[in-house]
Write the structure tokens for this entry.
Amino acid sequence: MGSTQLNRNDIVEQCIKVVQYFETSIAFHFSFNQPLQVIGIRDNQFLVLQLVFSQGRYQTTNFTVVDDNSEIIAELKLFQVLIEQYLDFIIRSWVDYFLFNKQPSTEVIEKRLSING
């Protein structure tokens, strides 16, 4: 059973970015299609983010560290803010891509977001 292992650079390069905030992105990857999983990318490093729902409402975001990298973990609050503020757009984009095979557009955010830690 030979599964092809992708390395970090391949995953980052092949991602479909749906939210771009300066050098930080929320994206999809064809091999990470579990509902509802997205990738948080910054400086060619990434986290796998699982959006958790209960009774149809967003509850929280669980994350999986791909590499032991404290720099990307330090950005977790930013990823959470991006997901919370662009949740409807991310979900619509995920559904379009994985269910309807439509290429999603990228929401580029050019204003600074308030990120309280």
In short: The two ends are 45 Å apart (CA to CA). The chain has a mean pLDDT of 81.
